[in-house]
Write a structure and sequence with these properties.
CATH superfamily of one domain: Vaccinia Virus protein VP39
Structural class: alpha/beta
Radius of gyration: 18 Å
Oligomer: single chain
Strand order of the largest sheet: 3-2-1-4-5-7-6
Strand content: 15-25%
Number of strands: 7
Shape: globular
Distance between the termini: 38 Å
Helix content: 25-40%
Length: about 290
Protein backbone atom coordinates (compact mmCIF):
# COMPACT_ATOMS: atom_id res chain seq x y z
CA UNK A 1 0.00 0.00 0.00
CA UNK A 2 2.97 2.32 0.47
CA UNK A 3 5.00 3.46 -2.50
CA UNK A 4 7.71 5.17 -0.47
CA UNK A 5 10.89 3.10 -0.30
CA UNK A 6 11.10 2.05 3.34
CA UNK A 7 11.11 -0.82 5.79
CA UNK A 8 8.36 -0.90 8.40
CA UNK A 9 9.05 -2.45 11.77
CA UNK A 10 7.23 -2.34 15.08
CA UNK A 11 10.32 -1.43 17.13
CA UNK A 12 14.01 -0.66 17.08
CA UNK A 13 16.00 -1.58 20.16
CA UNK A 14 18.28 1.08 21.60
CA UNK A 15 21.44 -0.78 20.58
CA UNK A 16 20.67 -1.44 16.92
CA UNK A 17 23.19 -0.50 14.21
CA UNK A 18 20.61 2.02 12.97
CA UNK A 19 21.04 4.10 16.11
CA UNK A 20 24.80 4.17 15.57
CA UNK A 21 24.44 5.05 11.91
CA UNK A 22 22.06 7.90 12.67
CA UNK A 23 24.39 9.28 15.32
CA UNK A 24 27.31 9.22 12.89
CA UNK A 25 25.20 10.90 10.22
CA UNK A 26 24.21 13.82 12.44
CA UNK A 27 27.70 14.14 13.90
CA UNK A 28 29.32 14.53 10.47
CA UNK A 29 26.81 15.91 7.95
CA UNK A 30 27.83 19.43 6.91
CA UNK A 31 24.92 19.41 4.45
CA UNK A 32 22.41 18.84 7.23
CA UNK A 33 24.07 21.50 9.33
CA UNK A 34 23.59 23.88 6.43
CA UNK A 35 19.88 23.12 6.32
CA UNK A 36 19.59 23.82 10.05
CA UNK A 37 21.42 27.12 9.55
CA UNK A 38 18.49 28.27 7.40
CA UNK A 39 16.21 27.99 10.46
CA UNK A 40 16.48 31.53 11.83
CA UNK A 41 14.75 33.20 14.79
CA UNK A 42 11.55 33.75 12.80
CA UNK A 43 11.39 30.02 12.01
CA UNK A 44 11.68 29.06 15.69
CA UNK A 45 9.40 31.81 17.06
CA UNK A 46 6.07 29.89 16.90
CA UNK A 47 7.60 27.00 18.86
CA UNK A 48 9.15 29.38 21.39
CA UNK A 49 5.85 31.20 21.88
CA UNK A 50 4.07 27.89 22.42
CA UNK A 51 6.58 26.78 25.05
CA UNK A 52 6.40 30.15 26.80
CA UNK A 53 2.60 29.97 26.88
CA UNK A 54 2.69 26.73 28.90
CA UNK A 55 5.77 27.44 31.02
CA UNK A 56 5.74 29.19 34.43
CA UNK A 57 8.06 32.20 34.99
CA UNK A 58 11.72 31.53 35.75
CA UNK A 59 11.42 27.87 34.81
CA UNK A 60 14.06 25.20 34.31
CA UNK A 61 13.68 24.12 30.67
CA UNK A 62 15.29 21.25 28.78
CA UNK A 63 15.13 21.45 24.98
CA UNK A 64 15.92 18.18 23.23
CA UNK A 65 17.26 18.05 19.68
CA UNK A 66 17.88 21.79 19.68
CA UNK A 67 19.93 21.71 16.46
CA UNK A 68 21.64 25.07 16.00
CA UNK A 69 20.46 26.18 19.45
CA UNK A 70 18.46 29.25 18.44
CA UNK A 71 15.20 28.20 20.14
CA UNK A 72 17.04 27.52 23.41
CA UNK A 73 18.62 30.95 23.20
CA UNK A 74 15.22 32.59 22.63
CA UNK A 75 13.70 30.70 25.57
CA UNK A 76 16.58 31.88 27.73
CA UNK A 77 15.94 35.46 26.67
CA UNK A 78 12.31 34.95 27.69
CA UNK A 79 13.46 34.59 31.29
CA UNK A 80 14.19 30.90 31.83
CA UNK A 81 17.16 28.74 32.76
CA UNK A 82 17.63 26.57 29.67
CA UNK A 83 19.66 23.52 28.77
CA UNK A 84 19.72 22.92 25.02
CA UNK A 85 20.84 19.48 23.91
CA UNK A 86 21.58 17.78 20.63
CA UNK A 87 23.22 14.54 19.59
CA UNK A 88 25.60 16.47 17.30
CA UNK A 89 28.44 18.66 18.52
CA UNK A 90 28.72 19.82 14.90
CA UNK A 91 25.26 21.40 15.02
CA UNK A 92 26.00 23.14 18.32
CA UNK A 93 29.25 24.83 17.24
CA UNK A 94 27.73 28.31 16.78
CA UNK A 95 25.64 27.99 19.96
CA UNK A 96 28.71 28.40 22.17
CA UNK A 97 28.67 32.16 21.58
CA UNK A 98 25.15 32.49 23.02
CA UNK A 99 26.08 30.42 26.05
CA UNK A 100 29.03 32.72 26.78
CA UNK A 101 26.91 35.84 26.37
CA UNK A 102 24.14 34.50 28.63
CA UNK A 103 26.66 33.48 31.30
CA UNK A 104 28.34 36.88 31.25
CA UNK A 105 25.36 39.21 30.92
CA UNK A 106 22.16 37.34 31.83
CA UNK A 107 20.55 36.49 35.14
CA UNK A 108 19.25 33.22 33.69
CA UNK A 109 21.53 30.34 32.77
CA UNK A 110 21.92 28.99 29.23
CA UNK A 111 23.84 25.79 28.67
CA UNK A 112 24.36 23.56 25.64
CA UNK A 113 25.22 19.89 25.97
CA UNK A 114 25.80 17.04 23.54
CA UNK A 115 23.69 14.04 24.53
CA UNK A 116 21.34 11.37 23.21
CA UNK A 117 17.64 11.62 24.02
CA UNK A 118 17.65 7.85 24.58
CA UNK A 119 20.11 8.25 27.48
CA UNK A 120 19.67 11.66 29.08
CA UNK A 121 22.47 12.54 31.54
CA UNK A 122 20.15 14.23 34.04
CA UNK A 123 18.72 13.17 37.37
CA UNK A 124 15.05 12.31 37.81
CA UNK A 125 12.62 15.24 38.05
CA UNK A 126 15.17 17.92 37.15
CA UNK A 127 13.16 20.20 34.81
CA UNK A 128 9.89 22.11 34.94
CA UNK A 129 9.47 21.77 31.17
CA UNK A 130 10.94 19.34 28.65
CA UNK A 131 10.33 20.33 25.04
CA UNK A 132 11.32 19.36 21.53
CA UNK A 133 10.62 20.61 18.02
CA UNK A 134 11.02 18.36 14.97
CA UNK A 135 12.94 15.75 16.94
CA UNK A 136 10.75 12.71 17.54
CA UNK A 137 10.51 11.70 13.88
CA UNK A 138 14.31 11.25 13.92
CA UNK A 139 14.37 8.95 16.97
CA UNK A 140 14.81 5.19 16.31
CA UNK A 141 13.25 4.20 19.66
CA UNK A 142 10.51 6.69 20.50
CA UNK A 143 9.15 4.74 23.49
CA UNK A 144 12.52 4.97 25.26
CA UNK A 145 12.79 8.66 24.35
CA UNK A 146 9.36 9.44 25.82
CA UNK A 147 10.22 7.50 28.99
CA UNK A 148 13.38 9.57 29.36
CA UNK A 149 11.42 12.81 28.88
CA UNK A 150 8.97 11.75 31.58
CA UNK A 151 11.76 10.69 33.94
CA UNK A 152 13.54 14.06 33.94
CA UNK A 153 10.31 16.12 34.20
CA UNK A 154 9.24 17.22 37.68
CA UNK A 155 5.86 16.19 39.00
CA UNK A 156 3.46 18.88 37.89
CA UNK A 157 5.84 19.82 35.08
CA UNK A 158 5.07 19.71 31.39
CA UNK A 159 6.30 18.04 28.23
CA UNK A 160 5.79 19.89 24.94
CA UNK A 161 6.34 18.06 21.66
CA UNK A 162 6.12 19.56 18.18
CA UNK A 163 6.83 18.06 14.78
CA UNK A 164 5.26 16.78 11.57
CA UNK A 165 2.42 14.27 11.75
CA UNK A 166 3.86 11.80 9.24
CA UNK A 167 0.78 9.55 9.54
CA UNK A 168 -1.71 12.30 8.68
CA UNK A 169 -3.91 11.31 5.71
CA UNK A 170 -4.15 15.00 4.84
CA UNK A 171 -0.44 15.43 4.19
CA UNK A 172 -0.27 13.27 1.02
CA UNK A 173 -3.62 14.68 -0.17
CA UNK A 174 -2.08 18.14 -0.08
CA UNK A 175 0.83 16.73 -2.08
CA UNK A 176 -1.69 15.39 -4.60
CA UNK A 177 -3.44 18.75 -4.94
CA UNK A 178 -0.11 20.46 -5.48
CA UNK A 179 0.87 17.94 -8.15
CA UNK A 180 -2.49 18.33 -9.93
CA UNK A 181 -1.84 22.10 -10.08
CA UNK A 182 1.57 21.44 -11.60
CA UNK A 183 3.54 22.19 -8.44
CA UNK A 184 6.03 19.81 -6.79
CA UNK A 185 5.04 17.50 -3.94
CA UNK A 186 7.22 16.65 -0.98
CA UNK A 187 10.54 14.90 -1.56
CA UNK A 188 10.48 11.21 -0.55
CA UNK A 189 6.74 11.19 0.31
CA UNK A 190 4.61 12.64 -2.49
CA UNK A 191 6.71 13.21 -5.59
CA UNK A 192 4.15 11.67 -8.00
CA UNK A 193 0.35 11.55 -8.05
CA UNK A 194 0.38 7.78 -7.68
CA UNK A 195 2.73 7.98 -4.73
CA UNK A 196 0.60 10.64 -3.03
CA UNK A 197 -2.60 8.60 -3.49
CA UNK A 198 -0.95 5.43 -2.22
CA UNK A 199 0.45 7.16 0.85
CA UNK A 200 -2.90 8.79 1.64
CA UNK A 201 -4.64 5.39 1.57
CA UNK A 202 -1.88 3.94 3.72
CA UNK A 203 -2.15 6.75 6.28
CA UNK A 204 -5.95 6.35 6.48
CA UNK A 205 -5.39 2.67 7.30
CA UNK A 206 -2.77 3.54 9.92
CA UNK A 207 -5.00 6.18 11.47
CA UNK A 208 -7.85 3.70 11.90
CA UNK A 209 -5.50 1.02 13.24
CA UNK A 210 -4.00 3.41 15.77
CA UNK A 211 -7.38 4.78 16.89
CA UNK A 212 -8.75 1.27 17.50
CA UNK A 213 -5.67 -0.05 19.27
CA UNK A 214 -5.69 0.12 23.10
CA UNK A 215 -1.92 0.75 23.12
CA UNK A 216 0.54 2.80 21.05
CA UNK A 217 1.47 1.36 17.64
CA UNK A 218 4.96 2.73 17.06
CA UNK A 219 6.07 2.20 13.47
CA UNK A 220 9.53 2.80 12.08
CA UNK A 221 11.20 3.15 8.70
CA UNK A 222 14.71 2.89 7.33
CA UNK A 223 15.94 6.51 7.05
CA UNK A 224 17.82 7.76 4.01
CA UNK A 225 21.29 8.54 5.38
CA UNK A 226 23.26 7.94 2.20
CA UNK A 227 21.99 10.35 -0.43
CA UNK A 228 21.79 14.11 -0.59
CA UNK A 229 19.51 15.76 1.97
CA UNK A 230 16.61 17.44 0.16
CA UNK A 231 14.27 17.94 3.08
CA UNK A 232 10.92 16.24 3.50
CA UNK A 233 12.10 14.17 6.48
CA UNK A 234 13.73 11.53 4.34
CA UNK A 235 16.05 10.93 7.28
CA UNK A 236 13.15 10.22 9.65
CA UNK A 237 13.11 6.88 11.48
CA UNK A 238 9.72 7.03 13.25
CA UNK A 239 6.33 7.64 11.66
CA UNK A 240 5.51 10.43 14.11
CA UNK A 241 1.85 10.49 15.12
CA UNK A 242 -0.04 12.17 17.99
CA UNK A 243 -2.21 9.09 18.68
CA UNK A 244 0.89 7.12 19.66
CA UNK A 245 2.09 9.92 21.92
CA UNK A 246 -1.29 10.42 23.55
CA UNK A 247 -1.70 6.72 24.39
CA UNK A 248 1.87 6.38 25.63
CA UNK A 249 1.59 9.40 27.92
CA UNK A 250 -1.76 8.27 29.30
CA UNK A 251 -0.30 4.83 29.96
CA UNK A 252 2.37 6.51 32.10
CA UNK A 253 -0.29 8.46 34.03
CA UNK A 254 0.26 11.87 32.43
CA UNK A 255 -2.57 14.27 31.65
CA UNK A 256 -3.06 15.64 28.13
CA UNK A 257 -3.32 19.43 28.51
CA UNK A 258 -3.60 20.14 24.78
CA UNK A 259 -3.86 17.42 22.16
CA UNK A 260 -3.07 19.88 19.35
CA UNK A 261 -2.75 23.66 19.22
CA UNK A 262 -1.69 24.84 15.77
CA UNK A 263 0.43 27.85 14.90
CA UNK A 264 -1.24 29.53 11.91
CA UNK A 265 -4.94 30.40 11.61
CA UNK A 266 -5.47 27.37 9.38
CA UNK A 267 -3.48 25.22 11.78
CA UNK A 268 -5.55 26.36 14.76
CA UNK A 269 -8.79 25.50 12.97
CA UNK A 270 -7.39 22.09 12.07
CA UNK A 271 -6.25 21.57 15.68
CA UNK A 272 -9.78 22.22 16.97
CA UNK A 273 -11.66 20.15 14.38
CA UNK A 274 -9.23 17.33 13.58
CA UNK A 275 -6.49 17.26 16.22
CA UNK A 276 -5.31 13.70 15.49
CA UNK A 277 -4.93 14.16 11.72
CA UNK A 278 -3.60 17.71 11.83
CA UNK A 279 -0.53 18.20 9.66
CA UNK A 280 1.59 19.16 12.65
CA UNK A 281 1.95 17.73 16.14
CA UNK A 282 1.81 20.35 18.91
CA UNK A 283 1.04 18.46 22.11
CA UNK A 284 1.25 19.60 25.73
CA UNK A 285 1.09 17.07 28.56
CA UNK A 286 1.46 17.38 32.32
CA UNK A 287 3.14 14.93 34.62
Amino acid sequence: MNSVSQTETSAHTSETPLRQRMRQFYETSETYKGLLAEHDEAYHQPFVELVNRYTPPNAQILELGCGNGIASMLLNRSGHDVVGTDISALFLEEAAQWQKTATRDGEHNLEYRVCDVLELPFQDETFDVVCSNELIEHVPDIETALSEMIRVTRKGGRIIICGPNLCSPLMPLIDLMRLIRGKPGRPFWGETKRQALSNSARNIFLYMKKRLSPSPQFLYREPDLEGEVFGGDGDSAYYANPIDLEKCFRHHGLRIVKRCIGFSTKGKIMAICFPRISLYISMVVQR
